[in-house]
Amino acid sequence: MREAAIGPEAGGSGAAIADSFDADKRRFYRFCIWPLALILIVITLVPMIYLVAISFTPLNLTQPQTFGDFSQPIRNYQFLTEDGRFHNSLWVQAKLSLWSVGLQLLFGFLLALFLNLRSSFLETLRTVFLIPMVLPPIVVAVIWKMMYTPAISPFHWSAAALGFEIPSLIASPDWALTAIIVAEIWQGFPFTMLMVLAALQMMPEEYIEAARIDGANVWQTTLHVTLPFLKGVLLAAGLFRLIDSMKAFPLIYLLTEGGPGEVTEVTNYYSFTLAFNFSFLGYSSAITVILMAMTIVLTWAIVKIVRRGEALV
Amino acid sequence: MGAKGFTTTRRRLLKGTAATAALATAGIFAPAIVGRAKQYDGVVLNGVSTSSVYMRRVKELVPEFEAKTGMTVNYEPLSFPIHNQRVDLELSTQGSAYDFVNLTFIYSGRWIGAGWLTQLDDFINDPNLTDPNWDPGDFVEGAQKSLQDADGNTYGFAHFAGAMLTAAGRYDLIEKAGLGMPKDFDELIAVCEAVHGKDGVAAWVSDRNHHWNSIPYLMGFGGEIFKDPPNNLTPLLDSPENIEGAAFYGRLLRDYAPSGVLTFDNDVTLRTLVAGQANMRTGELAWELPMATAPESAVKDTVRFGLTPTGPAGWYPGNNSHGYAIPVGSQNKEAAWAFIQWALSKELMERIAREQGFAALCRRSIISSDWFRESLQINGDDVAGLYLEVLDRGGEEPYMRYRTVPVFPQVGDKLNKAIEKIATNQQSAEEAMRQAQAEAVQQLKLMGIELDI
Predict the structure, then answer these.
(1) Confidence of residue A310 (pLDDT cuts 50, 70, 90)
(2) Taking CB atoms and an 8 Å cutoff, what residues of chain B touch A272?
(3) Are strands B44-50 and B72-78 parallel, antiparallel or unpaired?
(4) Closest C-alpha among B122, B121, B138, B134 to residue B32
(5) Spatial separation of the C-alpha atoms in residues B102 and B274, rounded to whole Å
(6) Whole-angstrom distance, CA of residue A217 vs CA of residue A223
(7) Banded pLDDT at A232 (limits 50, 70, 90)
(8) A274-309 pLDDT, tens per residue?
(9) What residues contact residue B230 under an 8 Å CB cut-off, 6+ apart?
């Protein structure tokens, strides 16, 4: 009977079973996935839609009548074009992101190459290098606050002992942003290092051996074999760090409050000031929408680049 | 008989009436809170305030109040910015999360103006709710001004008054230079010139709240922040007087302050003074007094206090006050008022002042009492007298009104940035103040504020 059931004559029945199984599967997915998808939509999309809607109003908590006032929907966006402080914040953000992400990738890559060498000491060292990444951002900010406060900073003490006087970096318009970038690199490079290290450990030894047999030296091997192999990973790490750099808030909040003047005032800090110090929720939302759009565009562009890179490898 | 009997009855009746009235009076007034103990059984009060010496001690003593009244009080003194952000958001929703909050000086115009706080005059005038011995008139007028609206209606009672004084930790260096406490701006510069760098001491220090610390200098040169607050909120940051004042204050920070001064908050500033690394500041007394009282202070014996220097256009020492207030959304307003009465009663204030020393109190009867003045005799200076003088100055002339208008945070932020730019040579005083003015005008227009521009 069982044999007959799976014989050719049972084909129609088998197809029916398969159809029924597929239908069950679809129902099961629908049953399981749709509620989750709905929750995700509610959690992620609804606040975003609300944010966009608020950005078309002049909402100000001290003026309750401004809630839901859509009479001049593009006023906030028009105002953005005239707001010099917003433009400056974008420029500060660009400098902060480009320098910090670029140097994080460089240091992360170099350290990963170094830590990839076979040594039990280096294996222990890997864990130490990961510490900045797992610290809460506010703790990182406190650490660097101490580093940059002349009265309690070992840097400043050491310099003074050697006869140099270093000005307070976070109070200097020439150095404040650099000081933030250094702290940001310290916090972020382990992520790149970890990703690159993981990729390096999956890299087939044959690639390196083949290059050596062909007479390539260490630099040539790194440049022409290792680096192309890591391109995708580096791009992905860069994407994550870039997005993270746009969220640089605790460091700026604790170290400089955007100052001196507006030297370290990035866009999200400016948006925070507008919303929580001045109650300009509508205008602040417009800035946040712009930031969000920039992040989405950046993400899309980098994903495209990564895919193209993967296709080329 | 009948007449006698009637007389007796009448006397008895009168006695009885008098006794009943006395009992009733006692029931209403006397231990007012204790008398209503049952009324508040099971009531849970939630409150927050900023954190000061006084507030922290009140929190410690809350169990005594709970034992008297039957209430449960969840009271959390918070750091200044956290409190303000949290309460601002809560009040704006007119929620009932808090039954009492700190009425913060710089937010007073905004919170009172927006109708987010309960008017307290009805409570004050109700003998069933307010002990007549509580004496609201005892609060220094200068401290109460910012807790009232333009019509004089009261929305809070002050638990903290800030009075700006000059403190010089290394007065010995000033004396050595043949100078005294600076009485005007020229003398201030002369003192800074003479002291800066001596014994490794910076002549001047200040925290980064420049929109508070710099104002006496701006006003001292004749500057005003707004045209006519609260009626006309047109900012005047780029007036020649303000530019001159900002340049003067920027010079103090740039030429005479320790490295990194622009990142100093009040704590760091105080530590710098207490350690004797900087000599002088003009600031709130509460942030200067530890130079004389902190056990670790290196300048206990050399610190001296004085009034802030007078400018060419007059004397405008900063003064402010913070009080307790009841949010309009509170569901336990009467109980919250009972708490405020207890927390700000003469008895409790005196007790805390005797325990803790100066606690920035606002009751005139305590500040001017002999024991209090004696306790604040520091190296020959009558600090309590100086404190009261500054608070009274605030009551005389409404020059501090600029700070209580709803748009001050926006304008103050622009001033802060301008002072930083001047102190770091990013811009000249004129450029910085012109930019600050332009940005302030832009933002006030965004808010829909009518300006004379």
Answers:
(1) low
(2) none
(3) parallel
(4) B134
(5) 28
(6) 10
(7) confident
(8) 998 888 899 999 999 999 998 888 888 877 777 776
(9) B109, B113, B150, B401, B404, B405
The proportion of chain B whose per-residue pLDDT surpasses 70, expressed as a percent, equals: 91
Residue B356: the pLDDT is: 82
Reported as a single tens digit per residue, the pLDDT across A125-153 is 888 888 998 899 899 999 999 999 887 88
Longest dimension (CA), chain B: 102
Q: Which residues contact B381 (CB under 8 A, 6 or more apart)?
A: B304, B305, B306
Structure letter (DSSP) for residue B363: B
Let me know how long chain B is.
Answer: 453
Nearest to B152 by CA among B399, B398, B428, B436: B398
Structure tokens at B357: 């020393």
Which residue has 């709803």 as its token pair? B406
Minimum distance, in Å, between the CA of residue B230 and any CA atom of chain A: 15
A294-303, B251-260, B262-271, B331-340, range with the lowest pLDDT: A294-303
Contact of B260 with chain A, judged by CB distance below 8 Å, is answered with yes
Residue owning tokens 């003194």: B77
Amino acid A26 reads R
Phi, psi of B304, rounded to the nearest 5 degrees: -135, 150
Phi, psi of A57 (to 5 degrees): -120, 160
Q: How confident is the model at residue B325 (pLDDT cuts 50, 70, 90)?
A: very high
Helix B408-423 with B240-256: angle, nearest 10 deg: 50
Chain B 80-99, residues with CB within 8 Å of chain A CB atoms: 85, 88-89, 92
Alpha helices in B148-239 (DSSP H): 171-176, 185-195, 210-213, 215-220
Q: How far is CA B139 from CA A154, B77, B365, B390, B403, in A?
A: 48, 22, 8, 14, 20
Whole-number pLDDT of residue A61: 75
Q: Which sign, positive or negative, has the C-alpha torsion B272, B273, B274, B277?
A: positive
B420/A82 Cβ within 8 A: no
Q: Cβ of A260 and B420 within 8 Å?
A: yes
Give how far B91 is from chain A: nearest CA, Å: 9
Residue of A nearest to B89 (CA): A61
- Letter for the amino acid at A73? P
N- to C-terminal Cα distance for chain B?
90
**Alpha-carbon torsion angle B97, B100, B106, B109, nearest 10:** 90
Closest-CA distance, B260 to chain A, in angstroms, reads 5
Q: In which band, very low, low, confident or very high, does the pLDDT at B328 lie, cut at 50, 70 and 90?
A: very high
How far apart, in Å, are the Cα atoms of B246 and each of A162, B209, B212, B218, B430?
37, 13, 12, 6, 9
